[in-house]
C-alpha cells in the first residue's frame, strides 16, 4: 500500500516513509492510495481476540511494508503489560441507550495514548527499516492532551527527540503539571504566549521553513510530527472502532452486520476521521456524528459546506477541542472528492482568507455520512449532572459534549441504531470542571484536593499517572513568544541528549 499527498504533488511513499516525514512535501497530508476492504467475517473474528491481536490485524492492512513481526513487536510495546489500567485497553461501558467507548486507560489518562503509545514504535522501526541515520526531532503543538501523551510515548525512544509547545494558559492545570514534570533525556516542554492555533501555526511554519530545516540538517536532525496529521498517529485510532464493534457483538448488543452510530468529541478531526476510515473499510457504521464545543466551526461546516475560521475564539471547559483549524478535514475532503487540485485550492484559500466553500455537491456527499452539532459549557455541565444522576457514571467534559450531541441527534433524527459515544479523557484530567458540574464546592482546593474530592464523589480509582504528580519534580519552565518558536527548536536540536 502506498501513501500519496492530498495536494497531489505526485509523491508515492511506503507507510514507513510517510510516518517518518509526517507531512507531505507540498504541505498536504498523506493518505492511503486505496482503502483496504474487510468482510463481516473479519469483523466477527475479532470478537474473541485481545486488543493487541485486533490491532495487529487492522494495522497489517495499512502498514504493508512492515513485517508481521515488526507490527506485533510495536503493538506489544505500545499496549502490552502494565501500561494500561484495563485489560481490555479500550473497554466499553454498555448502558441501555448508549455504549461509552473509554479510550483513557493509558498512561496519561487521555485517548491520545491510544495512538501515541504506538506512533513512536512505528517511527523508530521505520527509521531502522529505511536506514535513516539522522535523528528525528518531533515537534508537537498541543491543546493539552497530545503534548503529554507524545512526551510519554517518545520519552527516551532511540534516534528521536521531542519538543512540545503548549498555549500558555490554554491547558488545564493538571495537563500543565503533567507536561512540566515530564522525565526523559530527549524531551523539551515550552509554553507559547498565544492560543492553540498560534502554537500549531508556529509548528507548521517551521515545517515549511526550508532555511530552518537546512540548519537542522547540518546538525543531522530531521523534523517530524506527532500531531494527528501524521499517518502513524491516525492509523492506530482506526483499531478501536473495530474493537468497540467486536465488543458490542460479543456483548449481544448488536447482531453481525448490524450498523451502529458513533458520536465523537472533535477538535482536529483525527478521531472521527479514523471512524470514517473504519466505515470505508466496511465496518458497519451508519452515521458519524461530529460533536463540537462553542468553537463550532465544524458544526457550521458540516451543515453549510462553508469552513470559516474568522470568528471569535472561546476558551472552554473542553480545551482539547478549542480549535479553529481542524487539519484532518483535509483528508476527508480528499477522499470525498478524489480531487487533489480542489483540495489544494481550498487549503490555499483557508491560508489566505481563513475561509473556503466546498459547494452543494460535495456537502451533500459529506452529509450522507456525517451529522454535526455542538454543546456549550453550560450544556456540557448539565450533561455531566444528568448522566451522573441517571447512571452514577461520571464522564469528563469532552465526553459530555459528545454525549449531549448524541442525545440531540436522537431527539432530532429518527434513527434506532446502537449508539457509541467516544469517551476521550478520564474525568480526573478535568476534575475542577467536572466537580463544578456536580455542584461540589471546590473553592481554594489545590489540584490534589480536587483529585481526592472527585474520588469521593465518583468512587473511581485515581489514575496512577495523576496521583504520582503529587510528588513529581517540576523539570520544565521555558516560555516563548509566537515568533520565538523556531529559535527554541534550533537551540534544543543542538543540545546533547541527557
Ligand atoms: C484530542 C482530544 C479530542 C479531539 O480529538 P481530535 O482527534 O483532535 O478531533 C477530544 N477530546 C480529548 C480529551 C482530546 O484530548
What does this molecule look like?
This protein has 498 residues and is an alpha/beta fold. The chain has a domain at 92-109 and 232-469: 3-Layer(aba) Sandwich (Rossmann fold). Helices cover 46% and strands 15% of the residues. The protein has helices spanning 15-21, 40-45, 51-62, 68-79, 112-116, 119-130, 145-154, 173-180, 196-207, 210-218, 231-250, 270-281, 297-304, 329-337, 340-353, 359-369, 377-391, 397-412, 431-437, 447-458, 464-467, 485-494; strands at residues 3-5, 30-32, 92-94, 99-102, 135-141, 160-167, 187-193, 221-225, 260-265, 285-292, 306-308, 355-357, 370-374, 418-423, 478-481. It has a six-stranded mixed sheet with strand order 3-4-14-9-10-13, with helices on both faces. It has a five-stranded parallel sheet with strand order 8-5-6-7-15, with helices on both faces. Strand 6, helix 8 and strand 7 (187-193) form a beta-alpha-beta unit. It is globular. 53% of the residues are buried. The mean pLDDT is 95. The structure holds pyridoxal-5'-phosphate. Pyridoxal-5'-phosphate (PLP) is lined by residues 110-112, 145, 228, 265-271, 320-321, 398, 424-425. The site of pyridoxal-5'-phosphate has 17 residues, from helix 12.
